[in-house]
Design the sequence.
């Protein structure tokens, strides 16, 4: 049986007559991933089975195995798809604030906290951590990946340094610092069960505005100060 790369995003065009080759239909692949997400979020990785996914996704077992060889590959694809979608949405939001550092930091911070403290993401992260010994590469990709929040923040800060709005010697360090400031420990509290619900919007705004104040005090360029 032929399997696809877990993060495959390029498909061959449908054959004449509008039919996709086996394992090449992106809509069918997404249908399977959507069903798998519901199964894994409800049952966890160990309890879930490929049979559960076929029922939830509404596909045959033969169809499922054309797209994904086993449960590990399916789970990896689901995690990568979710991570990539969030990263893309944050990059788009930041791109809209190329002329305003603080507005960009605010949008990034609010999106970051809202996403990382939500039930869906917390449950997914707990599941990933639960299989870290069997699937260490998956954990590495989930938290780092070829493009992640830190690389996006790095690019955003670099653009503003070049524009003379920020003065930063170590952009990678600064990107990590803002992520730490923005998290406000919410993520850790949620992940380990110390906080049962996501923080309120008022609490998120308080933390993000404080993070921006500290960050700009360290790296902002005053109008009278040369970049």
Sequence:
């Amino acid at each position: 049986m032929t399997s696809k790369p877990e993060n495959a995003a390029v498909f061959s065009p449908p054959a004449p007559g509008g039919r996709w080759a086996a394992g090449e239909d992106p809509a069918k692949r997404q249908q399977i991933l959507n069903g798998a997400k519901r199964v894994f979020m409800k049952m966890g990785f160990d309890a879930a089975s490929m049979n559960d996914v076929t029922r939830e996704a509404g596909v045959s077992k033969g169809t499922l195995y054309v797209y994904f060889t086993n449960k590990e590959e399916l789970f990896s694809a689901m995690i990568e798809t979710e991570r990539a979608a969030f990263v893309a949405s944050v990059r788009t939001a930041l791109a809209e604030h190329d002329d305003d550092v603080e507005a960009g930091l605010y949008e990034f911070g609010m999106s970051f906290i809202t996403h990382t403290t939500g039930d869906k993401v917390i449950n997914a992260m707990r599941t990933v951590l639960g299989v870290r010994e069997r699937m260490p590469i998956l954990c590495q990709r989930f938290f780092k990946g070829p493009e992640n929040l830190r690389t996006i923040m790095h690019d955003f800060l670099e653009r503003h340094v070049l524009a003379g709005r920020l003065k930063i010697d170590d952009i990678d360090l600064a990107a990590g610092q803002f992520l730490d400031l923005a998290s406000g420990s919410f993520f850790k509290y949620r992940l380990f069960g110390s906080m049962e619900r996501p923080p309120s919007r008022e609490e998120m705004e308080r933390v993000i505005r404080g993070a921006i104040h500290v960050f700009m005090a360290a790296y902002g360029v005053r109008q009278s100060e040369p970049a």
About this structure: The chain is about 65% helix and 0% strand. Residues 30 and 78 are 9 Å apart (CA to CA). The mean pLDDT is 83. The longest helix spans residues 71-95.
